[in-house]
Amino acid sequence: MNYELLVESWCELGLGLLHSGAEIYRVEDTLHRLARAYHVSCEVFAIPNCLIVSATDPDGKVHTRMRQATVSGTDIEGIERFNALSRLICANPPQDPQEVLLEVRQTGASIRRYPAHWQLVGYLVGSIFFSLFFSGGWLESLVAGASGLLCGMCMLALSRTRSNFFINTMVSGFVLALVVYVALGLGLPINPGTAVVGSIMVLVPGLVFTNFMSNLLTGDIVSGLSTFTRAVLTAGAIALGTGAAIALCQTLFPGSSPLTAVAVYTPLEYCFFAFMGCLGFCLLYNVRGTGSILCCLGGALGWAVYLPVMYLTGNVFISNLAASVGVAIYAEIMARLRKCPSISYLVVSYFPLVPGFTVYQAVDYGIRGESQLFLETMIRTFGISGCIALGTLLVSTAVRMYYTRKEKPHP
Predict the structure, then answer these.
(1) Strand 50-56 to strand 62-68: parallel, antiparallel, or no bridges (unpaired)?
(2) pLDDT tens, residue by residue, 158-195
(3) Which residues fall within 8 angstroms of residue 235, CB to CB, at 6 or more apart?
(4) What gap in Å lies between CA 110 and CA 75, rounded to an integer?
(5) pTM value?
(6) What is the pLDDT of residues 129-145, one digit of tens each?
(7) DSSP state, residue 56
(8) Per-residue CA distances from 143 to 196, 230, 238, 302 (Å)
(9) In the chain, where the domains are located
């Protein structure tokens, strides 16, 4: 057997998972399972921008591949397709490595992606309903929708120029806040805070921040720090862009007076807004078919757990922990029923919970020199992210222990 080509095919599959935004442990575990299927000793090292695969054939010869990876976002369709392929190969390993490599490349080429106009619909829907979710009125939600739509246009246009992600995010944040504060300056009676917070959800790195905590808790220190750095840089870019837009509009419209009132909705309405907001992110994260509805149900479920726990305890950390456990259990059940990774549900269902806006707030306080507020917000952000990551880890660990014990032969 051509082990050089076999390792190359494994590396291609691992890169496909990394490019699609799969978790580091999933990439490493998938490649280890492939190696076991071929009865080969294998070592894997993965971080967000690099993958190293080393295998030892039966003759003792070592075959190593190192490839650079680029994670541009989260593609749930890609993760599911590559995961399904790895399951198929493990169940019935082809003896021709060329066949494995061909299947991996065909899978990568056949992944469906939403066209630009559907992605813009995702930006619009996500911004409108997350503005309502954060207690904005219908007028604020419409302004947030226009802001998110223009922000999406800006992001898509800049991504085609292959410019730096920091510049892309900063310019998009500027456009996002400019729309809201120009609307305020032109006399629309809105609360700019609830409009901005809704549309800014399409940019904030809350999910990345939560993944950073998850990586640290599972021992992936290098990956965790790399993810954390990107999250902080993204939050800084948003703060710089929105701060510049707000300063410009305050100069252009010095007499504008923002409203401070917020809307109050019933718990059922908040859950509905969470459902619809997640639907927008399904388009952005390439979730398709029935899976998109199931992801949105997970988002509504998380908030349905959060609200009563928050009412009973008054503690935001306990509430997020309970909600994340509920979402994680739901994701594991759906993953078993539909034979796909749990991340397919977690990545979207967690959006109502992730502290994305507090990351932005913390960096914004830091830029303005408000040290006390910066520290308080960062501690709150770390606490919420840690609770969400811990809830996920508790459920995933319990599930792994159950299946390991189930598969272990009894004496």
Answers:
(1) antiparallel
(2) 888 877 888 888 999 899 989 999 998 888 888 888 88
(3) 204, 205, 359, 360, 362, 363
(4) 13
(5) 0.86
(6) 999 998 889 999 999 99
(7) E
(8) 9, 29, 18, 27
(9) 3-110, 116-400
